[in-house]
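Summary for the funding panel

The consortium committed to producing paired sequence-structure records for every protein in the target list. Below we show the first two records in order, beginning with the earlier of the two.
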Amino acid sequence: MNSLRPSRRPTPPLVRLRLLGFGVLSLFIAATVFLFPSAFPSVLQRIGGPIWEGSNIAGGAFQTLGESFRSKYDLIQENRALQQKLADIELQLQGLKIIQEENFELASRKDHEESSPKIVAAVLTRPNVSLYDTLIVDAGERDGIETGARAYAGSDVLIGEVAAVYRTTALIKLFSTPGERTIVQVGTGKIQAEAIGKGAGNFEARLPHGANIVEGDDVVIPGIHPKIFGTVLSIIAGPADPFETILFRGPINPFEIRHVFIGE
C-alpha cells in the first residue's frame, strides 16, 4: 500500500538565481573582510561619504534658512519696539508743549491782572459746544462782571460783549454772531462801515466803489485807541453794483479761545 507524501513545488529558476547571487556576494564580502580587513572601512567611506556630505549640506541649508527667518522676526520685533518708543516720546513732547503753553498763559494772566483793571476769565465752553458764536466764562456777578462789558482775546483784540451775567459765570456774545452789527473803520483811509457778523469769526461790510480797499487791510474799532477787529480777506465787486462787499475775519479763532479779558 502506497503512502501519500506532500507534493513539493519546484523553485522557480529566477528565485534560485537570486539566492545564488546573494550567496556569492555574501561570500565575497566575508572573504574581503577576512583577507583585507584594512580595505573594508575605506570602501564604506567611499560609498557613504557622499551620502553623509549631502546630509550635512542639507542640514546646513535648513539651519541657514531657520536663522534667516529668525533674523527677520527679530528685526520686526525690534522695529515695533522702536516705533512704540517713538510714540511714547512724541506723547511726552506733546505734554511738555501743553504745559509750556499753560505756564505762558498763566504768566501772561498774572502780569495782566497786576497792570490792568480788566477781569481775566477762563473760557468754559466755546462756539462748538455753547450756542452759536457765544462763550461761557468762569467769572460772574461775584467777580464784578456787568452786562454790556466788552470782552477781549488778548489785550487789544475786541471779540464781543457780555450778554448775560450769572452768579459765577457769564455769557459773552461774539461780534461775529450772524446778523450782529458793529461800527468799524476799514483800510488806511479809516473808512467807516457797518460790519455784519457771518458766524465763526467772519464778517462782511459794504463800501462804495473806489474806496481803495485791498486784501490785508486792517479793520478796527474806532476810538482814541483803536482796537484791532479783523483783516480784509477778499473784495467782491459786481459791474452793475455801486457797492463792493468786503469780506474779513477776526484775528482770533473763536474755537481756540481759552481766556478772555473783560472790561472797558
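The next record, for a separate protein in the list, is shown here:
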Amino acid sequence: MKLLFVRFSSFGDVILTTGIMNYVSRMLPEAEIDVMTYKQYAPVFDNLPFVHNVIDYDRSKGLKEYLYVVQNETEDHDYIFDLHRKLRSVFLKFHSQAEYHHYKKDSKARRDFVRKGKDNPRLHMHVVQKYLEPVLSPLGLVMPDIDELRPVLIRHVERDEKRVFIHPFASKNTKTYPYARELAELLIKNGLTPVFAGMGKAPETDGIVDETGRKKLADMLDIIASCGSAVSSDSGPMHAAIGLGLPTVGIFGSTTKHFGFYPAFDNCIMLEDNRVNCRPCDVHGLDKCPENHFSCMKNLTPDKVLDNLKKLIGT
C-alpha cells in the first residue's frame, strides 16, 4: 500500500506532519509512505526511516514544474492525504487515480473566535490531531494519545546539555519575545549557554553563541539539535526543537492554544498569561499591539521563563 502525504509549507506545519507519518508507519508497517513538499523544506525529512520517498517541488520554477512532478511522481499511490488543502494540493484529487482525503482547516472557526469570542469544539484540537483525522477511517486507525503524534526529526550531531537554543523571533511583532537580552544574561548567570539562531538580531551580550542570519535549513536543524533544551516564540523553530526531542518552553503572547499549534507534548511547557483578556488579537499575530500595552508578552518575564525551563531540565 502506497501513501502520499502532501504539505508544501510552512516550516512548522511541515514538521508537524512527521508525527502523523511516524504513527501510521508504526500501525501499518507494510505501508510505503511518500511525502510531497516544497524543495526548501525537504531536509525536514532527512534520516526519517518511515519516509520512503520525498517528492520535492521547486515552486520557483512555476506551474509547469509542478505539473511535471505530478505526472511523473504521483501516479501509483493508493491514497493521497492532503494536509495543506490549497489549490495546488487539491489538484491532485482530479489528476490522480488514488483515493483522495484532506484535512479540515477550521479557518472560519479561528476567525470567529478572534473577532466574536465564539468558541468551537474544533478549537480544542491540536493541529496534529486534525492532520490525522482524514487518515483514520480510510486506513482503519483510531486517534491515539497526542504524544503518539509528536513530530520527529533526526539529525546526527553531538548534543551539549548546557546549550539552550533561543528563538525569540517571529513573523509578527506581537509574537516576538521582547526580553531576549535579559533572558540571555539570566541563563548565563545560571551556567547555561544561550544559542541564538533564526532570522533576527541576537542581543549584544558576552557569553552567547550567535548563529542568527540566513542559513540552509539543514544547518539550522543541526544548530538546534546541538542544544540540550530550547526556549522559543510561537514559530517553526519551536516545532523543530520539539521534533528533535528537546525540553522546550514555548512563549505565547498574542496567540493562544485555540489555533492548534501549542507545545502539547511531553517535556514541553506553554508559557502564557491568561489574565490578559484581549488575547488572541489575531490568528497570525500583528505588527503592533492593538491595545498599546503588549502585556501578553511583557508579563512573561525572563525569571518566569527560567523557572519553567528548570522544571524541564532539573537545573
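Regarding this second record: The mean pLDDT is 96. DSSP finds ten helices and eleven strands in the chain.
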